Amino acid sequence: MNISQKSYTVKFSNKGNLKFPLYLILLILLILSFAAALGLGSSTVNFISFIKALLNGDTQNTDYRIIMFIRLPRALGALLSGAALAVSGVIIQAVLNNPMAAPNIIGVNSGAGLAAVLLITAFPTLIPLLPIAAFLGAISACLLIYAISYKTGAGKVTITLVGIAISSILNAAINLVKTLFPDSVFDADLFLIGGLSAVTVKKLYLPLILISIAIILSIFLAKDIDIITLGDETSYTLGMRVKSVKLMLLVLAAILAGSAVSFAGLLGFVGLLVPHIARRFVGTSHRRLIPISAAMGSILVLLCDLFGRTAAAPYEISVGIILSFIGGPFFIALIFLQRRKSYDRA
Asked: Rounded CA gap, 48 and 185, in Å?
């Protein structure tokens, strides 16, 4: 699904020797992480009892209720949000040609969050449309950042700082709505930090569809994303309609980030951490980078949420707090690394 005026062939680093073992390892880790998320927690669960209750239709069984109504929705939410934010980060970094860009860094998450909070406050009967509202907020933030980068020709660090400023403004707007309408925004603190304790299966129906479609489309567009990373001038030379492709990619990134924010809140740093780690293993070919990042993102959020539920049991640490403790130092290290590269080029 390549949107271009003529065919092109460009080789990218893919480190293909690692491909099959890495896919297998990630699949095993994903299954184990998901199983651990179902089985571990502040209370002990008997899987045999759960399976018997499942087969017999005994919905009153304690183990059945814990897994089906609490842990399963939460594990599915972690899997979906991790994959969505990781792939959104891959796309945004490619479109802005900025390795420090991520949905939470440049304000995409905050844009989705503000739209979600406004919908909850002004139109509480339309809460089922929360993923749509979050998408509109996310795409607005995406387009704003892209317009600034395109019009000003600002450098990578400058665009990141602009994104941080916009994110701060949007977060301030969220807090203003929360202050003026404290009774309307239910679990606002959890939403702002990012957490999965309030996730239900019902909340995941629409996000599941949107995230699945967006990830599949991004894989089909992987070759176009590869070309975008070469820069606008080279992309035009190769016959690509750069503006159309970038707009489509930003829409996909916004769908992914907005869908995740709609049920998981403002989870941070997944879209920054995971793409960098994935590139270490599979290189820059987005045909491999996107599915690998999706798997790694799911594993990261599953394990962080599991740690938050078990480390201080019976108390719970929100997954958003844990991700911030991990992602914050990583972001600082990345800034120093980028500055060092700039000095080396000079």
From this structure: 40
DSSP string for residues in 92-157: HHHHHT-TT--TTTTTHHHHHHHHHHHHHHH-GGGGGGHHHHHHHHHHHHHHHHHHHHHHH---HH
CATH number at residue 58: 1.10.3470.10
| Residue 127 included in any domain | yes
Q: Is the dihedral of CA 123, 127, 132, 133 positive or negative?
A: positive
Q: Is the pTM of this model over 0.90?
A: no
Q: Does 68 map to a domain?
A: yes
Structurally, the chain folds into a number of domains equal to 1
Give residue 78's domain range. 35-345
Residue given tokens 């959104």 in the structure block: 88
Contact between 148 and 88 under an 8 Å Cβ cutoff? The reply is no
What rounded mean pLDDT belongs to the chain? Answer: 84
Place 7 in a pLDDT band, splitting at 50, 70 and 90.
very low
